[in-house]
């Protein structure tokens, strides 16, 4: 964990230049003069039962990402999650934040932090981001005493939000399975018990956004990610050798296909490579809800998709080993997934 004074400086802004540990190598820096076209990813109405399966299948094949509306998650809950996140990052004193500090030596540990990847100080370029990670499923992992006490409804809202997001993730995994002519339960059965983490990410204004990334290029390591964001914008998707900006859509939920789903679908559906850029004027907040297998789960292409003329595109992997590689080596786009290609 960085020193308290440095975390405070980044959280509150006001630095004239970016500290050296946040400066990306030239090849990774965003070209903010040509920020890229808006990514025309589909927006899918989940209440339209006539076309939703076909639309989601097409989006998974072409983009690995799509927005959903009429998704069934209460709008007031989406708004409250974002306001709770802003309250914690902007209003909570640093001393109180540090009471919830995560273990920076352990991958994806619960709590408040700003260093995602493992490795010695100086070995890893840091993202211009603070975050709070909540472990919410299975229920045996859920301990609200690890979460902020204030505002008074913080813990209740996070629990309710996690429950709603898990229901939506399971519904989407069923539709994704059916879009491949698989039984509705196929992907969820391949995954096993779902492990859910909710990560609030706060990107402070950055004095030199052209040198930094809020979140480096990667695809999510798990199964499916559900993301909400404020109106600031900064999320980009990589497609056809170009970075495209994903404009926020009010009260829509962005669905990102993750690496294990690419494996299970034998590469028919691609995980979404994405990153976050920063800006000099406005803080940005997003809330990502990750749905992953257990660390002991063995993930491989679905047997229904393998046949006489179709060979497995990916080797079987134990998910815990995949996670360890992701955090220790770094994502660098999709290199950990590419390492499993047959």
Automatic annotation (TrEMBL):
Gene Ontology MF, one: metal ion binding
Signal peptide: none
Residue ranges of coiled coil: none
InterPro entries with a match to the protein in the record: DIOX_N (IPR026992), IPNS-like_FE2OG_OXY (IPR044861), IPNS-like_sf (IPR027443), Oxoglu/Fe-dep_dioxygenase_dom (IPR005123), Plant_2OG-oxidoreductases (IPR050295)
Ranges of residues in domain Fe2OG dioxygenase: 193-293
PROSITE patterns in UniProt: FE2OG_OXY (PS51471)
UniProt keyword annotations, A-Z: Iron, Metal-binding, Oxidoreductase
Similarity annotation: Belongs to the iron/ascorbate-dependent oxidoreductase family.
Protein name, UniProt field: BnaC01g21830D protein
